[in-house]
Specification:
Helix Hairpins, 3 domains, 472 residues, alpha+beta, single chain, Beta-Lactamase
Protein backbone atom coordinates (compact mmCIF):
# COMPACT_ATOMS: atom_id res chain seq x y z
CA UNK A 1 0.00 0.00 0.00
CA UNK A 2 2.86 2.36 0.75
CA UNK A 3 4.43 1.75 -2.68
CA UNK A 4 1.07 2.41 -4.37
CA UNK A 5 0.68 5.67 -2.47
CA UNK A 6 4.15 6.78 -3.57
CA UNK A 7 3.42 5.93 -7.21
CA UNK A 8 0.03 7.67 -7.36
CA UNK A 9 0.01 11.39 -8.25
CA UNK A 10 -0.89 13.80 -5.47
CA UNK A 11 -3.67 15.61 -7.32
CA UNK A 12 -7.16 14.18 -6.87
CA UNK A 13 -8.16 14.80 -10.49
CA UNK A 14 -5.23 12.76 -11.78
CA UNK A 15 -5.99 10.01 -9.29
CA UNK A 16 -9.62 9.98 -10.40
CA UNK A 17 -8.61 9.83 -14.07
CA UNK A 18 -6.23 6.96 -13.29
CA UNK A 19 -8.95 5.08 -11.41
CA UNK A 20 -11.49 5.55 -14.20
CA UNK A 21 -9.00 4.72 -16.93
CA UNK A 22 -7.61 1.76 -15.01
CA UNK A 23 -11.04 0.35 -14.18
CA UNK A 24 -12.32 0.66 -17.75
CA UNK A 25 -9.06 -0.67 -19.18
CA UNK A 26 -9.16 -3.74 -16.96
CA UNK A 27 -12.85 -4.30 -17.72
CA UNK A 28 -12.27 -3.88 -21.46
CA UNK A 29 -9.24 -6.15 -21.37
CA UNK A 30 -11.16 -8.87 -19.50
CA UNK A 31 -14.11 -8.58 -21.87
CA UNK A 32 -11.84 -8.62 -24.94
CA UNK A 33 -9.92 -11.61 -23.64
CA UNK A 34 -13.14 -13.51 -22.95
CA UNK A 35 -14.61 -12.61 -26.34
CA UNK A 36 -11.49 -13.45 -28.32
CA UNK A 37 -11.01 -16.75 -26.52
CA UNK A 38 -14.63 -17.67 -27.15
CA UNK A 39 -14.51 -16.66 -30.82
CA UNK A 40 -11.12 -18.30 -31.26
CA UNK A 41 -12.54 -21.53 -29.91
CA UNK A 42 -15.41 -21.36 -32.39
CA UNK A 43 -13.03 -20.63 -35.28
CA UNK A 44 -10.63 -23.40 -34.22
CA UNK A 45 -13.49 -25.88 -34.02
CA UNK A 46 -14.61 -24.79 -37.48
CA UNK A 47 -11.09 -25.30 -38.82
CA UNK A 48 -10.96 -28.73 -37.22
CA UNK A 49 -14.17 -29.61 -39.04
CA UNK A 50 -12.77 -28.27 -42.33
CA UNK A 51 -9.54 -30.23 -41.84
CA UNK A 52 -11.50 -33.38 -41.12
CA UNK A 53 -13.70 -32.90 -44.19
CA UNK A 54 -10.63 -32.29 -46.37
CA UNK A 55 -8.96 -35.45 -44.99
CA UNK A 56 -12.07 -37.56 -45.62
CA UNK A 57 -12.38 -36.19 -49.15
CA UNK A 58 -8.71 -36.89 -49.95
CA UNK A 59 -9.02 -40.42 -48.53
CA UNK A 60 -12.10 -41.13 -50.68
CA UNK A 61 -10.48 -39.80 -53.86
CA UNK A 62 -7.17 -41.51 -53.22
CA UNK A 63 -8.56 -45.02 -52.68
CA UNK A 64 -8.56 -46.04 -56.38
CA UNK A 65 -5.13 -44.49 -57.08
CA UNK A 66 -3.73 -46.20 -54.01
CA UNK A 67 -5.11 -49.59 -55.10
CA UNK A 68 -3.66 -49.07 -58.57
CA UNK A 69 -0.42 -47.70 -57.12
CA UNK A 70 -0.77 -44.57 -59.29
CA UNK A 71 1.66 -42.26 -57.49
CA UNK A 72 1.30 -39.47 -60.06
CA UNK A 73 -2.43 -39.36 -59.47
CA UNK A 74 -1.90 -39.27 -55.73
CA UNK A 75 0.54 -36.37 -56.07
CA UNK A 76 -1.84 -34.50 -58.38
CA UNK A 77 -4.65 -35.01 -55.89
CA UNK A 78 -2.48 -33.60 -53.09
CA UNK A 79 -1.34 -30.65 -55.25
CA UNK A 80 -4.98 -29.67 -55.82
CA UNK A 81 -5.90 -30.09 -52.13
CA UNK A 82 -2.88 -28.03 -50.95
CA UNK A 83 -4.51 -24.89 -52.38
CA UNK A 84 -7.06 -24.84 -49.52
CA UNK A 85 -6.40 -21.97 -47.04
CA UNK A 86 -4.53 -23.12 -43.93
CA UNK A 87 -2.98 -26.25 -45.44
CA UNK A 88 0.78 -26.34 -44.85
CA UNK A 89 1.60 -29.86 -46.06
CA UNK A 90 -0.18 -33.06 -47.27
CA UNK A 91 1.09 -36.67 -47.29
CA UNK A 92 -0.26 -40.08 -48.28
CA UNK A 93 1.53 -42.99 -46.63
CA UNK A 94 1.23 -46.78 -47.04
CA UNK A 95 0.49 -49.00 -44.02
CA UNK A 96 4.23 -49.49 -43.49
CA UNK A 97 4.78 -45.77 -43.09
CA UNK A 98 6.49 -45.13 -46.46
CA UNK A 99 5.59 -41.80 -48.04
CA UNK A 100 3.84 -42.28 -51.36
CA UNK A 101 3.09 -38.63 -52.07
CA UNK A 102 4.19 -35.49 -50.24
CA UNK A 103 3.52 -31.83 -51.08
CA UNK A 104 3.88 -28.60 -49.08
CA UNK A 105 2.27 -25.23 -49.60
CA UNK A 106 4.34 -22.24 -50.73
CA UNK A 107 3.39 -18.59 -51.30
CA UNK A 108 0.45 -17.38 -53.37
CA UNK A 109 -1.59 -20.62 -53.05
CA UNK A 110 0.97 -22.80 -54.84
CA UNK A 111 2.29 -26.19 -53.76
CA UNK A 112 5.45 -28.16 -54.50
CA UNK A 113 6.26 -31.85 -54.12
CA UNK A 114 8.73 -33.06 -51.52
CA UNK A 115 10.68 -36.33 -51.40
CA UNK A 116 12.40 -38.39 -48.73
CA UNK A 117 10.42 -37.25 -45.67
CA UNK A 118 9.27 -39.91 -43.21
CA UNK A 119 6.56 -39.57 -40.58
CA UNK A 120 5.64 -41.80 -37.63
CA UNK A 121 2.26 -43.48 -38.07
CA UNK A 122 -0.52 -43.55 -35.47
CA UNK A 123 -1.74 -46.86 -34.05
CA UNK A 124 -2.77 -49.40 -36.69
CA UNK A 125 -6.36 -49.55 -35.52
CA UNK A 126 -6.67 -45.79 -34.95
CA UNK A 127 -9.54 -43.93 -36.48
CA UNK A 128 -9.57 -40.29 -37.48
CA UNK A 129 -7.48 -38.15 -35.06
CA UNK A 130 -6.67 -34.47 -34.70
CA UNK A 131 -3.99 -33.07 -32.36
CA UNK A 132 -2.65 -29.61 -31.76
CA UNK A 133 1.07 -29.12 -32.42
CA UNK A 134 3.61 -26.31 -32.20
CA UNK A 135 2.00 -24.86 -29.05
CA UNK A 136 -1.36 -24.38 -30.73
CA UNK A 137 -0.06 -22.97 -34.03
CA UNK A 138 -1.19 -25.94 -36.17
CA UNK A 139 -3.36 -29.09 -36.34
CA UNK A 140 -2.05 -32.51 -37.26
CA UNK A 141 -4.80 -34.63 -38.91
CA UNK A 142 -4.57 -38.37 -39.55
CA UNK A 143 -7.27 -40.04 -41.72
CA UNK A 144 -7.07 -43.78 -42.47
CA UNK A 145 -7.83 -45.03 -46.03
CA UNK A 146 -9.83 -48.22 -45.63
CA UNK A 147 -11.42 -50.94 -47.64
CA UNK A 148 -11.71 -54.10 -45.57
CA UNK A 149 -8.51 -53.02 -43.89
CA UNK A 150 -6.33 -49.97 -43.68
CA UNK A 151 -4.50 -49.60 -47.00
CA UNK A 152 -2.95 -46.15 -46.30
CA UNK A 153 -3.01 -42.90 -44.39
CA UNK A 154 -3.74 -39.27 -45.19
CA UNK A 155 -1.67 -36.81 -43.13
CA UNK A 156 -2.53 -33.10 -43.09
CA UNK A 157 -0.52 -30.32 -41.37
CA UNK A 158 -3.13 -27.59 -41.03
CA UNK A 159 -2.02 -24.14 -39.83
CA UNK A 160 -4.08 -22.10 -37.34
CA UNK A 161 -2.75 -18.73 -38.40
CA UNK A 162 -6.32 -17.64 -39.13
CA UNK A 163 -7.15 -18.11 -35.45
CA UNK A 164 -4.22 -15.94 -34.35
CA UNK A 165 -5.07 -13.31 -36.95
CA UNK A 166 -8.67 -13.30 -35.78
CA UNK A 167 -7.54 -12.92 -32.14
CA UNK A 168 -5.25 -10.04 -33.01
CA UNK A 169 -7.92 -8.31 -35.05
CA UNK A 170 -10.49 -8.65 -32.28
CA UNK A 171 -7.98 -7.32 -29.73
CA UNK A 172 -7.26 -4.25 -31.84
CA UNK A 173 -10.94 -3.60 -32.52
CA UNK A 174 -11.86 -3.89 -28.85
CA UNK A 175 -8.88 -1.80 -27.72
CA UNK A 176 -9.78 1.01 -30.12
CA UNK A 177 -13.38 0.85 -28.93
CA UNK A 178 -12.21 0.89 -25.32
CA UNK A 179 -9.88 3.82 -26.02
CA UNK A 180 -12.70 5.91 -27.41
CA UNK A 181 -14.87 4.91 -24.45
CA UNK A 182 -12.08 5.87 -22.02
CA UNK A 183 -11.60 9.27 -23.63
CA UNK A 184 -15.32 9.98 -23.60
CA UNK A 185 -15.91 8.75 -20.03
CA UNK A 186 -12.84 10.58 -18.67
CA UNK A 187 -13.91 13.81 -20.33
CA UNK A 188 -17.46 13.40 -19.00
CA UNK A 189 -16.21 12.73 -15.46
CA UNK A 190 -13.84 15.70 -15.50
CA UNK A 191 -16.51 17.97 -16.93
CA UNK A 192 -19.00 16.88 -14.28
CA UNK A 193 -16.49 17.22 -11.44
CA UNK A 194 -15.06 20.56 -12.57
CA UNK A 195 -17.17 22.67 -10.21
CA UNK A 196 -16.91 20.33 -7.16
CA UNK A 197 -13.17 20.11 -7.65
CA UNK A 198 -12.89 23.88 -7.92
CA UNK A 199 -14.91 24.21 -4.70
CA UNK A 200 -12.64 21.65 -3.02
CA UNK A 201 -9.60 23.56 -4.24
CA UNK A 202 -10.96 26.77 -2.72
CA UNK A 203 -11.69 24.89 0.51
CA UNK A 204 -8.12 23.55 0.54
CA UNK A 205 -6.66 27.03 0.00
CA UNK A 206 -8.90 28.36 2.78
CA UNK A 207 -7.80 25.54 5.12
CA UNK A 208 -4.13 26.26 4.34
CA UNK A 209 -4.55 29.80 5.73
CA UNK A 210 -6.50 28.85 8.86
CA UNK A 211 -3.46 29.37 11.07
CA UNK A 212 -2.86 32.95 9.89
CA UNK A 213 -5.12 34.41 12.61
CA UNK A 214 -7.74 35.77 10.21
CA UNK A 215 -11.39 35.05 11.00
CA UNK A 216 -12.45 35.10 7.32
CA UNK A 217 -15.35 32.85 6.26
CA UNK A 218 -15.58 30.54 3.23
CA UNK A 219 -18.66 31.02 1.01
CA UNK A 220 -19.61 28.20 -1.41
CA UNK A 221 -23.34 28.73 -2.11
CA UNK A 222 -23.50 26.56 -5.24
CA UNK A 223 -21.41 23.66 -3.98
CA UNK A 224 -22.72 20.16 -3.49
CA UNK A 225 -24.01 19.35 -0.02
CA UNK A 226 -20.86 17.45 1.02
CA UNK A 227 -18.61 20.38 0.12
CA UNK A 228 -21.00 22.82 1.83
CA UNK A 229 -20.73 20.69 4.99
CA UNK A 230 -16.96 20.86 4.70
CA UNK A 231 -17.17 24.65 4.31
CA UNK A 232 -19.28 24.94 7.49
CA UNK A 233 -16.73 22.91 9.44
CA UNK A 234 -13.88 25.04 8.07
CA UNK A 235 -15.73 28.26 8.99
CA UNK A 236 -16.26 27.02 12.55
CA UNK A 237 -12.59 26.04 12.75
CA UNK A 238 -11.59 29.46 11.42
CA UNK A 239 -13.61 31.27 14.08
CA UNK A 240 -12.29 28.99 16.85
CA UNK A 241 -8.69 29.32 15.71
CA UNK A 242 -8.97 33.10 15.39
CA UNK A 243 -10.26 33.38 18.97
CA UNK A 244 -7.58 30.99 20.21
CA UNK A 245 -4.94 32.93 18.29
CA UNK A 246 -5.98 36.22 19.87
CA UNK A 247 -5.91 34.64 23.32
CA UNK A 248 -2.54 33.02 22.60
CA UNK A 249 -1.14 36.33 21.36
CA UNK A 250 -2.29 38.01 24.56
CA UNK A 251 -0.75 35.29 26.71
CA UNK A 252 2.43 35.38 24.62
CA UNK A 253 2.66 39.14 25.12
CA UNK A 254 2.29 38.71 28.87
CA UNK A 255 4.77 35.86 28.93
CA UNK A 256 7.21 37.79 26.78
CA UNK A 257 6.99 40.80 29.10
CA UNK A 258 7.50 38.55 32.11
CA UNK A 259 10.47 36.81 30.51
CA UNK A 260 11.98 40.15 29.47
CA UNK A 261 11.57 41.41 33.03
CA UNK A 262 13.19 38.28 34.42
CA UNK A 263 16.05 38.49 31.91
CA UNK A 264 16.59 42.15 32.77
CA UNK A 265 16.82 41.26 36.47
CA UNK A 266 19.26 38.43 35.76
CA UNK A 267 21.44 40.54 33.50
CA UNK A 268 21.68 43.35 36.05
CA UNK A 269 22.83 41.04 38.85
CA UNK A 270 26.45 41.38 39.94
CA UNK A 271 26.65 37.63 40.49
CA UNK A 272 26.68 35.16 37.59
CA UNK A 273 23.61 32.94 37.18
CA UNK A 274 23.54 29.72 35.13
CA UNK A 275 20.50 27.48 34.51
CA UNK A 276 21.37 23.84 33.65
CA UNK A 277 19.31 20.68 33.07
CA UNK A 278 19.66 17.31 34.79
CA UNK A 279 22.43 16.30 32.36
CA UNK A 280 24.52 19.39 33.04
CA UNK A 281 23.64 21.13 29.76
CA UNK A 282 23.54 24.92 30.03
CA UNK A 283 20.04 26.26 29.27
CA UNK A 284 20.66 29.95 29.93
CA UNK A 285 23.18 32.32 31.51
CA UNK A 286 23.26 36.00 32.36
CA UNK A 287 25.72 38.56 31.06
CA UNK A 288 27.86 38.35 34.19
CA UNK A 289 28.64 34.65 33.59
CA UNK A 290 29.73 35.35 30.00
CA UNK A 291 31.90 38.27 31.09
CA UNK A 292 33.35 36.40 34.07
CA UNK A 293 34.49 33.37 32.02
CA UNK A 294 35.32 35.18 28.75
CA UNK A 295 32.67 33.51 26.57
CA UNK A 296 29.87 34.87 24.42
CA UNK A 297 26.43 33.82 25.62
CA UNK A 298 25.78 31.79 22.45
CA UNK A 299 29.01 29.84 23.03
CA UNK A 300 27.73 28.54 26.36
CA UNK A 301 24.10 27.68 25.54
CA UNK A 302 23.84 23.94 24.85
CA UNK A 303 27.32 23.12 26.21
CA UNK A 304 28.05 21.14 29.37
CA UNK A 305 28.60 23.30 32.44
CA UNK A 306 31.81 21.36 33.14
CA UNK A 307 33.32 23.61 30.45
CA UNK A 308 33.67 26.25 33.20
CA UNK A 309 35.60 23.94 35.57
CA UNK A 310 39.26 22.90 35.67
CA UNK A 311 40.35 19.31 36.14
CA UNK A 312 39.69 17.10 38.06
CA UNK A 313 36.18 18.53 38.58
CA UNK A 314 35.54 18.80 34.84
CA UNK A 315 35.82 15.04 34.28
CA UNK A 316 34.00 14.15 37.51
CA UNK A 317 31.07 16.60 37.16
CA UNK A 318 28.75 14.29 35.19
CA UNK A 319 29.38 11.61 37.80
CA UNK A 320 28.33 14.06 40.54
CA UNK A 321 25.02 14.65 38.74
CA UNK A 322 24.46 10.93 38.11
CA UNK A 323 25.09 10.09 41.77
CA UNK A 324 22.59 12.74 42.81
CA UNK A 325 19.94 11.53 40.32
CA UNK A 326 20.26 7.91 41.42
CA UNK A 327 21.01 8.24 45.12
CA UNK A 328 19.83 11.79 45.92
CA UNK A 329 23.13 12.41 47.70
CA UNK A 330 23.99 16.10 47.26
CA UNK A 331 27.65 17.10 47.18
CA UNK A 332 27.35 20.89 46.98
CA UNK A 333 23.59 21.28 46.53
CA UNK A 334 22.08 23.80 48.94
CA UNK A 335 25.48 25.02 50.24
CA UNK A 336 27.93 27.79 49.46
CA UNK A 337 31.38 26.52 48.60
CA UNK A 338 34.61 28.05 47.39
CA UNK A 339 35.93 26.32 44.26
CA UNK A 340 37.94 27.23 41.18
CA UNK A 341 36.55 28.26 37.80
CA UNK A 342 38.38 28.30 34.46
CA UNK A 343 38.06 30.99 31.80
CA UNK A 344 38.01 30.44 28.05
CA UNK A 345 41.76 31.07 27.83
CA UNK A 346 42.49 28.51 30.59
CA UNK A 347 43.05 30.92 33.49
CA UNK A 348 41.91 29.64 36.89
CA UNK A 349 40.32 31.94 39.43
CA UNK A 350 38.51 31.47 42.76
CA UNK A 351 34.69 31.58 42.84
CA UNK A 352 31.98 31.36 45.45
CA UNK A 353 29.37 28.82 44.20
CA UNK A 354 25.83 28.13 45.34
CA UNK A 355 23.64 25.52 43.56
CA UNK A 356 19.94 24.84 44.18
CA UNK A 357 17.49 22.43 42.57
CA UNK A 358 14.34 23.68 40.80
CA UNK A 359 11.55 21.13 40.22
CA UNK A 360 8.62 21.81 37.84
CA UNK A 361 6.42 19.86 35.43
CA UNK A 362 9.36 19.36 33.07
CA UNK A 363 11.48 17.72 35.78
CA UNK A 364 14.52 18.83 37.76
CA UNK A 365 16.84 21.63 36.70
CA UNK A 366 19.49 23.49 38.65
CA UNK A 367 20.28 27.16 39.29
CA UNK A 368 23.90 28.04 40.01
CA UNK A 369 24.90 31.43 41.42
CA UNK A 370 28.58 32.26 40.93
CA UNK A 371 30.55 35.17 42.43
CA UNK A 372 34.12 36.01 41.47
CA UNK A 373 36.06 36.31 44.75
CA UNK A 374 39.42 37.10 43.18
CA UNK A 375 39.47 40.61 44.71
CA UNK A 376 38.54 39.27 48.16
CA UNK A 377 41.25 36.63 47.97
CA UNK A 378 43.82 39.24 46.90
CA UNK A 379 42.77 41.54 49.77
CA UNK A 380 43.04 38.64 52.18
CA UNK A 381 46.54 37.86 50.94
CA UNK A 382 47.55 41.51 51.19
CA UNK A 383 46.19 41.67 54.76
CA UNK A 384 48.12 38.56 55.74
CA UNK A 385 51.30 40.04 54.24
CA UNK A 386 50.78 43.37 56.07
CA UNK A 387 50.16 41.52 59.32
CA UNK A 388 53.33 39.52 58.83
CA UNK A 389 55.28 42.75 58.21
CA UNK A 390 53.74 44.36 61.29
CA UNK A 391 54.58 41.35 63.41
CA UNK A 392 58.16 41.41 62.14
CA UNK A 393 58.42 45.16 62.97
CA UNK A 394 56.99 44.55 66.42
CA UNK A 395 59.50 41.78 67.00
CA UNK A 396 62.29 44.15 65.92
CA UNK A 397 61.04 46.90 68.24
CA UNK A 398 60.71 44.38 71.08
CA UNK A 399 64.27 43.21 70.52
CA UNK A 400 65.51 46.80 70.31
CA UNK A 401 63.76 47.82 73.53
CA UNK A 402 65.04 44.77 75.34
CA UNK A 403 68.58 45.61 74.31
CA UNK A 404 68.11 49.29 75.17
CA UNK A 405 66.64 48.38 78.56
CA UNK A 406 69.68 46.30 79.32
CA UNK A 407 72.22 48.82 78.00
CA UNK A 408 70.65 51.85 79.79
CA UNK A 409 69.69 50.23 83.08
CA UNK A 410 73.09 48.58 83.63
CA UNK A 411 75.11 51.86 83.94
CA UNK A 412 72.34 53.59 85.86
CA UNK A 413 72.18 50.70 88.33
CA UNK A 414 75.95 50.92 88.63
CA UNK A 415 75.75 54.68 89.37
CA UNK A 416 73.00 54.04 91.92
CA UNK A 417 74.94 51.23 93.57
CA UNK A 418 78.23 53.07 93.85
CA UNK A 419 76.54 56.35 94.94
CA UNK A 420 74.72 54.40 97.63
CA UNK A 421 77.96 52.93 98.85
CA UNK A 422 79.59 56.36 98.84
CA UNK A 423 76.76 57.78 100.93
CA UNK A 424 77.54 55.19 103.58
CA UNK A 425 81.14 56.39 103.87
CA UNK A 426 82.52 59.25 105.88
CA UNK A 427 82.64 62.01 103.29
CA UNK A 428 83.04 65.74 103.54
CA UNK A 429 79.80 67.66 103.48
CA UNK A 430 80.36 69.00 99.99
CA UNK A 431 81.35 65.56 98.69
CA UNK A 432 78.27 63.96 100.33
CA UNK A 433 76.11 66.64 98.73
CA UNK A 434 77.56 65.84 95.31
CA UNK A 435 77.12 62.13 95.74
CA UNK A 436 73.54 62.63 96.98
CA UNK A 437 72.72 64.72 93.92
CA UNK A 438 74.24 62.08 91.66
CA UNK A 439 72.21 59.35 93.40
CA UNK A 440 68.97 61.40 93.14
CA UNK A 441 69.61 62.19 89.46
CA UNK A 442 70.28 58.50 88.71
CA UNK A 443 67.02 57.48 90.43
CA UNK A 444 65.13 60.14 88.40
CA UNK A 445 66.77 58.93 85.19
CA UNK A 446 65.91 55.31 86.06
CA UNK A 447 62.26 56.34 86.62
CA UNK A 448 62.18 58.11 83.26
CA UNK A 449 63.71 55.08 81.53
CA UNK A 450 61.16 52.76 83.23
CA UNK A 451 58.27 55.01 82.10
CA UNK A 452 59.59 55.05 78.51
CA UNK A 453 60.03 51.27 78.49
CA UNK A 454 56.57 50.75 80.04
CA UNK A 455 54.95 52.96 77.34
CA UNK A 456 56.82 51.08 74.60
CA UNK A 457 55.72 47.76 76.08
CA UNK A 458 52.06 48.83 75.97
CA UNK A 459 52.39 50.11 72.39
CA UNK A 460 53.95 46.84 71.22
CA UNK A 461 51.25 44.84 73.05
CA UNK A 462 48.55 46.78 71.17
CA UNK A 463 50.35 46.26 67.85
CA UNK A 464 50.89 42.51 68.35
CA UNK A 465 47.55 41.62 69.89
CA UNK A 466 47.81 39.26 72.80
CA UNK A 467 51.50 38.53 72.26
CA UNK A 468 53.72 39.78 75.10
CA UNK A 469 57.08 41.16 73.94
CA UNK A 470 60.07 40.25 76.07
CA UNK A 471 61.73 43.59 76.95
CA UNK A 472 62.84 42.75 80.48
Amino acid sequence: MGVLERLLPRRFTLQLVLVVVGSMFVSQALYTNHTTEEQSGVIEEMLRTQAQALAVNIAANATAALIGNDLDLLEQLLMQSARFPGVRSLQILDPAGRTLADVFAVANGRAEPRFGARFPLPAADAAFSVETIEEGAALLVWQPIRLDRTIGWVRIDYGLGQVQATKLGMWWDNLLTGLFALIFSTGAVLLYLRRPLADLRRAGEFAAHLGSGSDAQLALPHAVSEVQGLAQVLNQASATLAAARREADLEATKLGASEAHSRAILHTMQDGVAHIDSRGTILSVNNRIAHMFGYDEDELIGRNVSLLMPEPHRSAHDGYLENYRTGRRPKILGRRVEVEGMTKDGRRFPIDLSVNEMVDDAGSTYIGVIRDITAEKQAEQELKAALAIAEAAAEARSSFLANMSHEIRTPINAVLGFSHLCLNLELPARGRDYVAKVHSAAESLLGIVNDVLDFSKRFIRLSCGSRQPDIG
